[in-house]
Specification:
Elements: E1 2-6, E2 10-11, E3 17-24, E4 34-41, E5 45-53, E6 58-60, E7 68-73, E8 78-83, E9 92-99, E10 111-112, E11 116-120
Parallel strand pairs: 2-11
Antiparallel strand pairs: 1-3, 3-8, 4-5, 4-9, 5-6, 7-8, 9-10, 9-11
């Protein structure tokens, strides 16, 4: 399976970030697979923002729940991340990832995209 993140590289503070994960070589509805968004920054390290299951059930990290959503388009085989009210500290490399373990997908997923740099700055 291959994952490719896409989205704007630069976002202004208070604006909304929308990222797309395009999946190939496998279906996002494949039983028992989970799909997550994880970010990495030099200050905070790795942080899981949330995940969406093969069934469509979503989990959002409580730390981000008030301003983050994850969704998908089964026909396009894409997973989306939306994060509102961005702050400079949201600057990070954002990854899409997948794993058949609901636990591992949030911490050490087996498959990762290459990541996309998002910088929050005016």
């Amino acid at each position: 399976v291959q994952l490719q993140e896409s989205g704007p590289g630069l976002v202004k503070p208070s604006q909304t970030l929308s990222l797309t994960c395009t999946v190939s070589g496998g279906s996002i509805t494949t039983n028992y697979y989970y799909w997550s968004w994880i970010r990495q920054s030099p200050v905070k390290g790795l942080e899981c923002l949330g995940s969406i299951a093969y069934s469509g059930t979503t989990f959002i990290n409580p730390s981000f729940k008030s301003r983050t959503s994850i969704s998908r388009d089964n026909a396009k085989n894409m997973v989306y991340l939306q994060m509102n009210r961005l702050k400079p500290e949201d600057t990070a490399v954002y990854y899409c990832a997948t794993d058949p373990s609901i636990t591992a997908v949030r911490s050490t997923p087996a498959y990762w995209g290459q990541g996309t740099q998002v910088t929050v700055s005016s």
